[in-house]
Amino acid sequence: MSDEGRRVFKMETVLGLVAGKAGADVSDLLGYLAQRALATEEEAAVAPMAKGWLYSQNPAFMQCGEAEGNYDDWVKKECGRLGDNVSLQPISAAELAGISVVLDKIAALKANVADLEETVAGLQAQVKELTPFKGQAADLEKKLGQSEQKVQGLNGDIANLKKELAPFNGKVAIDEKEIESSVKDIVSRAVKDALKALPVAAAGAAGAAAAEGGAMADFDAPAEDTSGGVPDTFGFGASGASDDGFGF
C-alpha cells in the first residue's frame, strides 16, 4: 500500500476512537480521515464510518476488547500489543461519497444559521441603540396629539369668527376718495359758518384771502348786511349806529 498521503498517529489516539472517546486528538484524527473540518455533531456521524475504515485497513484493531474497568490500563495493555504509533490513510472518496452529501448539507445549513445569527445580532444592536429613544418617541406622539387638538380648536374659533363677520361682509370697505370728499365737505361747511359769523368787512377779507390761496375757490361770499352793521369804512371818523365818531 502506498505511503502517499499517510499520517502517523499515536496509538492511544486511535484507541480513543475505538473506545468512543472525545477530545482534541480524536477530533484531529476524524478530520484527517474525512479530509474536512468537522463540527461536534458531524464527528458523531463520521465516527462509525471511521472505525469501519480503521478495521478494514488494520484488522488487528478488531481484536481490541471492550474498554472495561480502568481506561488507562486498557490503553496501556493494547499499546503493548499494537505498538505506540500507527500509520493511517484518509477514507477513500468512494467510501465518503454517501456521507459527504450529508456533511455538505449540514455545512450549508450551518452557514445559513450563521448568517441568520449575524442578522439577528445586527437587529438586536439596532434595537439596543433605539431603546433610549422609545420614551422620546412616545412623548413626541403625545405632544403631537395635543397640538392636533389645539389646531382643531383654533380652526373652530376661526370658523366662529367668520360667522360673526359674515353680516359685515361688504360693509366695512374703506373708500379713501369718499373719506377725502367727506372731510372737504366738513371743512367747507365749517369755513362758511365761520365767515357768516364775522362782520361784513372781515368776511370779505377772509373770502379774498381764501380765493387767493385757492383752497376755497368754490365758496360763495356772504351777502352784504345793510341792516345797521359795520359801514364800509371801518375806523376812526366813521359814523356807526350811535354816531359816536368811532365807527362802532
Question: What's the structural blueprint in terms of helices and strands?
Answer:
Layout: E1 7-10, H1 11-18, H2 24-34, H3 40-57, H4 71-82, E2 85-88, H5 93-165, H6 176-197, H7 200-213
Antiparallel strand pairs: 1-2
Helix pairs in contact: 1-2, 1-4, 2-3
Structural account:
The chain has 248 residues and is mainly alpha-helical. It is 64% helix and 3% strand. It is built from seven helices and two strands, in the order βααααβααα. The protein has helices spanning 11-18, 24-34, 40-57, 71-82, 93-165, 176-197, 200-213, and strands at residues 7-10, 85-88. Strands 1-2 form a two-stranded antiparallel ribbon. Helix 1 packs across helix 2 and helix 1 (11-18) crosses helix 4. The chain is rod-shaped, with a radius of gyration of 63 Å. It starts with 6 loop residues before the first strand and ends in a 35-residue tail after the last helix. The model is unreliable at 169-174, 215-219, 229-240 and 244-248 (pLDDT under 50).
Give a short account of the largest sheet.
2 strands, antiparallel
Structural class: mainly alpha
Span between N and C termini?
A: 167 Å
What is the helix tally? 7
Identify the strand order in the major beta sheet. Answer: 1-2
Number of strands: 2
Range of strand content: under 5%
Percent in helix = 55-70%
Shape: rod-shaped
What is the H/E string?
EHHHHEHHH
Rg calc: 63 Å
In round numbers, the mean pLDDT is 74
